[in-house]
Amino acid sequence: MHFGAKVRLILVAWTIRMSSESLHSEAAARNAALTRLRDEHRALARVIEALETVTAQIAETGLEPDFPLLASMIYYIDAVPEKLHHPKEDRFLFGVLRQRNSEAAPLIARLEREHQRSPQLVAELERTLVHWQGGASDGLDAFALALSRFCEFSWGHMRTEETALLPLAEQCLTNDDWLAMADAFGANGDPLFGGVRRNEFDRLYHRIANLAPRKLKLGLLRSSSSL
To answer: Over the stretch 51-81, which tens digit does the pLDDT of each residue have?
Structure first.
């Protein structure tokens, strides 16, 4: 074979190899970022579901409320999204996707407004819990109503992110974007808060699991195994 032809074959093989490695690297970064983001959604969903279940059991059976458990759950669904999850979505997902695809702007704006509304709904939960714990005759009903509003909001928000936003991100974000997001949502070396803050929330999650009734505890602990 002529030397020039050999060189061309080598270059073609090298290009194919580099392209394959690039695609593999991009897929790995994308999968790592999406897995961590969805893991955080799943952990949050587990705590919300547990809060719904515990409240329903109290309403149905007349059991004495476990206020420390309820307070821990509310603290988790407030602190984790506001201090850990939402800021990373705002910076590494919403902001970047808005740059990559201008047509996603209305959807992103809606989700950002929902991020701003979430603390107001949690504050209502906190107020009604105190009202209930203080012995008000309508305490349970008021808390259950506030919880219903919060849950409807939270399920809708996470569903929109999972079914509408993330598919757009998979179409538009670059390898560098995914790498940055994977680092941000990674278990270690969090560029916004560091491992200490994540460990704090992991400990809180396990405290909730250990305080929860047995059936809920098993579900919470199964979810935590992927975090």
So the answer is: 999 999 999 999 899 999 999 999 999 988 8
Domain limits for position 128:
3-224
Tell me which residue of 158, 163, 186 sits closest to 77, measured CA to CA. 158
| pLDDT digit string, tens, across residues 122-150 | 999 999 999 999 999 999 999 999 999 99
Is the pTM above the cut of 0.85?
no
Q: Please enumerate in sequence order all residues whose Cβ is within 8 A of that of 213, keeping only pairs 6 or more positions apart, or say none.
A: 54, 57
The torsion region of residue 62 among left (phi > 0), alpha (psi -120 to 50) and beta comes to left
CATH number of the structural domain spanning residue 145? 1.20.120.520
- Asked whether the CA dihedral 79, 85, 86, 90 is positive or negative, the reply is positive
